[in-house]
Write a structure and sequence with these properties.
Blueprint (H helix, E strand, L loop, with lengths): L4 E7 L9 H14 L2 E7 H4 L19 H12 L2 E7 L7 H8 L9 E8 L6 H10 L6 E2 L4 E4 L14 H28 L7
GO molecular function: FMN binding; oxidoreductase activity
InterPro entries: Flavoprotein-like_sf, FMN_Rdtase-like_dom, NAD(P)H-dep_reductase
Protein name: NAD(P)H-dependent oxidoreductase
Length: 200
């Protein structure tokens, strides 16, 4: 493993009019400037995962998966850490994100993940983050303490349509990246030296 860790920044929403690519690009740029990461910006809209989870695509089988499932699997496998960027829909995560999570198992295991969320309410999408904190441990993925939320994000645009809320949370974003780097290195070293026990 080189000096830099591989970070997958995942755009978790796919619906028309989504805002998630904007904060995803922001945190991806900050991560690239951080110096500790090689960044892969993963848009689930481009992944084109089949809506039907066929037997050949399930993690528990040995049959070759379909091409789109394989392509995303390779990108997730390369990652040493993840940042999931998502809106909150009906107090939870979007179906596109849960669908993508459920397609894979080993790709997520023994890696850290943080969340960046947004929403129209004062919670800023933290209900989605809390649901991810319930889901990821089942995949043996560690959710780190630091996350970022953008509450009522639609209120923070200037006359030119630019979002004005990034500067105020940039110090927290840098702390998030520092913590993510620490856990990513610790877990990458552990994966390199000791096989993860089988879950079942």
């Amino acid at each position: 493993m080189g000096d830099k860790l591989n970070l997958g920044v995942i755009i978790g929403t796919t619906r028309e009019g989504r805002w998630s690519p904007v904060p995803a690009k922001w945190i991806a740029d900050l991560a690239a400037q951080h110096g500790g990461f090689e960044v892969d910006l993963i848009d689930l809209l481009d992944a084109e995962l089949p809506q039907h989870l066929a037997e050949r695509d399930m993690w528990s089988t040995e049959e070759d998966p379909s091409e789109s499932v394989t392509k995303l699997s390779e990108r997730l496998h390369r990652a040493d850490a993840f940042i999931v960027v998502t809106g909150e829909y009906n107090l939870s995560i979007p179906a596109s994100l849960k669908h993508a999570i459920d397609y894979y198992m080993n790709e997520w295991a023994a890696k850290p993940v943080s969340m960046i969320t947004y929403g129209g309410k004062v919670s800023g999408g933290q209900n989605a983050a809390q649901h991810l904190r319930q889901v990821f441990p089942e995949l043996r993925t560690m959710t780190i303490r630091n996350s970022i939320a953008f509450p009522r994000f639609f209120q923070k645009f200037d006359a030119q349509g630019n979002f004005t809320g990034f500067d105020e949370v940039e110090p927290e974003a840098k702390k998030l990246l520092d913590e993510l780097q620490w856990w990513a290195k610790a877990l990458a070293d552990a994966r390199a030296t000791t096989a993860l026990p089988k879950p079942y």
